[in-house]
User: Fold these one by one.
Assistant:
Number 1:
Amino acid sequence: MKLHRLALAILAAAALGLRPAAALDRPEITFKVFQFPPDKIPRVDGDPSDWDIVPQSYVIDGSQLTDVEEPHTHPDPKVCDVKVKVGWVKGLNRLYFLLVETKPKWDFAGPGLQNDTFEVVVDGDASGGPLIDKSHREFWTPEHVGVSRAVPDDRISNSEAHWAIQGVQAQNYHIFTPAKDKDWCMAWDAATWIKELPWANAATKYDFQPGQGGTLVEEFWITPFDYAGPEGPQRAVPSVLYDNKIIGLCFAVFEYDPTHTHPSNHTHFWDLSPHFMMYGDASEACAFRLMPLEPQFLPPIGAQWSWKVVDMDRRVVAFKDLSVGQITSWKWDFGDGTTSTEQYPIHQYKEPGSFVVVLTVQGPAGTAHHSKVWDVQLK
């Protein structure tokens, strides 16, 4: 099968060292993704006040964006004043975005792609690699070693390349700023369903007409996927998000002007990555770290834990401490008359049953307890 040959070609290219299997751009900086507490999840309604709790250190502004075309300048705040915040919530495999952008002129009158745009590329497992068919076909071709331009591999049809890999392992969203009489974004993937609920949501607030100036507020969230195929969500694999995970993420602010002489009609393409092709290659995305909760949102001491059955036949259970604060001692009551003072105990229950397990922790800030009622059930 041709797609089988595609996979072999990818492996061969990696063996030849044509491109690293995974990479992230701008190694001098790791951007931060703010963790919202579970009681402060931002409401996607175009009101940015939910984001006031995000510290200034998380804000990405125009000073971090560079026009990929000559003369590689940063946006002048008088021409484009842009601020971006990115957030996440533990337990929800979503990335939240707030874009606040002010310009003297907005172009969004047309029904097609030529619309002022905020483009986002997300690679939830930071695996890198091309994510659009054009980039993939060039990547696979051995003939491009030592030459400046790749030679397309005609053994792979455009259709096969598109449906096999367009946006499958990393996703590209063209968010229209604003979207007038069209979807809120174009998912530039074979899996266009990723822009719909329950995988994404968006809200925009603005009070200007095409050609006028003003401030736009765009709130949205998306679901990053390790695999998102065109067949639909039934085989999709959302990226699992957790504390301190590094993801690949990049975005660009670009403007369209039908009178501009550049073939793309771009007047500007301000990019977080220094590479224009970041839109089609996740290896040119930047590193973003999913930060733990900021200290002001944590209790001085709090007990929390999880559990996992290691061996159901022998009723062996592993317990994991997830407590917060400075902890000096742990006491586990396993609900069967036995206890442990280990931080991460493994316990074997002698009889089947449903157990109330309690963890008690102590530290300089005091004592905290946390029980799970009948979560541990062994039959």
Note: The first strand starts at residue 31 and ends at 35.
Number 2:
Amino acid sequence: MHNIEEYTYDLPGELIAQEPAPERTDSRLLFLDRDEGGFSDHRFSDLPSLLEPGTLLVVNDTQVVPARIFGRKESGGQVEVLVLDHAKNGTPGPTVRRCLLKASKRPKPGSRLLFDEDLSGTVESWEGDGIVRIAFSGPESVDALLSKIGVMPLPPYIRRTRRDPRAGMDRNRYQTVFSRWKGAVAAPTAGLHFSEALIARLKKVDVSLASLTLHVGHGTFRPVRTRDIRAHTVEAEAYRIDAKTAASVNRAREQGRKVIAVGTTVVRTLETVAAKNGSVATDEGWTDLTILPGHRFRVVDGMITNFHLPASSLFLLVSAFAGRDRIKRAYAHAVQERYRFYSYGDAMLICQGRKNKVEG
């Protein structure tokens, strides 16, 4: 069970969603029974009828920064830059930022880069994994200029041209309705399916919400390159859990109510801070927790998650939660039924003992 080749599956390319569903809750939802392995097909708008009264949903309120900018070298060559470091809300950020840079030829330290809105940058140094440190200067702060000229850092499997007319739609739809704290370079995609109207319906059936913050980093798309999955580690990401959310999670557990994570980012955060008895405390820091099959989950009873890339750390996580064989059967069903995959695709609800199961 430790060979990465055991965590792959076949996916036709046309099932990789290039755009979101017309409305957030129009996406499909595959329910997977964590206990028995049965599954059934639904719409995301059915979620209130699939959750037990008293359930606590924990969401990620990170906000994706439109951090991809296009420019040129002084020599004229085109460059694409993804800014990785971001200021906290309301605070001025540093002028020197870690970035990912794409160019036909790597610019040397000291090279000057030119962008729109009179923003410029000077390459200071190259680090590992294609990361470069750039000193930015311009008439406004880097963060203010990113809000003007930056585009959403969509994952590489969503194809967009430089001036794609869908950029405005991406600014809205690649952001959850929970987004509050700037800092992510990728969306916590399970949250993309929620609307304000659906949240109101959930509250009417006694399903409550709590939020935490984990700023998704670019490493979320980094493939597992080790044959033995135990040798893989995910990139550290910043998180924060406040006292209100910690109390909500602890109270739900004490009362025997289900705690369901909206997304793998929430799972990793809660499992990072969980004590041996499953209690959660206020905390802030960085987590590189890599959840593999065999992990003992202390807090989370269920999760809502999108369909993930084969042989990825996220596929390993859901396999750890529900069992590799069950996940692979559910994914095979999703492929057969033409579900849409990845960030703009459909979703899964994995939890215990619901009705209307279809054996897989």
Note: The longest strand covers residues 96-103.
Number 3:
Amino acid sequence: MALAVLRLVFDRSLLTFDAARHRHLYDGKQLIGVTTALGMISKGDAITQWAVNQSLEFLTNAFAQEGEYAPEEIQAFLLQAKYAWRAKRDEAADIGTQAHNWIESYLKGENPDLIWPKHPAVRKSCEAAVKWTEAHHWQTIEIEKQVYHPKLGYAGILDWWVFIDGVPSIPDWKTSKAIYSTHRYQTAAYLKAVELETREYIRNRWVLRIDKSTGEFEDVKLQRGTLADDWRCFKAALALYKREKQLKEEK
């Protein structure tokens, strides 16, 4: 089904991605990343509490051995505890990246014999993803597609553009601890950019979350009726990001 909208044509050869700096560019000009704009939306106290928990866990392990500790040892422990969250964050990010890359390879048909990752958490994630795909009929249109909205000046890379059970959809794989509202807005931004460029009608969005620790799977199907509100929220976050950036530059 084609959309009866004016298509904003752009030269795709001018749209590039600097992987080292994680920057989207059009004709050399840096664009606003979808996730960068959504960084303006707070996830509440969950992230703060998680960081505190990492420090407490580190100190609990550090002082598990009985005995006296010199002041300099205590100071060293406290300093390490201060930044314990970074190590945990990087470890989680690495697991998420490995799982994401394996799933991408699987969807492309590059791993027909299902050679599983060795890391137990990565394997759990990949097994859950395969189990979900086996429960649905799917036909890939594009994987890892870089999208660009020339009017609003944002860009991003969507995970998957696909027919799921015969319905054109844009799913996004997540290895986060929960499904957040920003995931809805992220997929709305991807969908709008794809439709603007291709004039193809996309009915559904999906958020596919895998718990890295347990391998449990959570899927949320976002039907077309939810798009308008989610798109409005993304544009609000984008406008806030642009205004904050402008104010910083004025200083």
Note: Strands lie at 15-18, 23-26, 29-30, 32-33, 138-149, 154-164, 167-174, 204-210, 217-222.
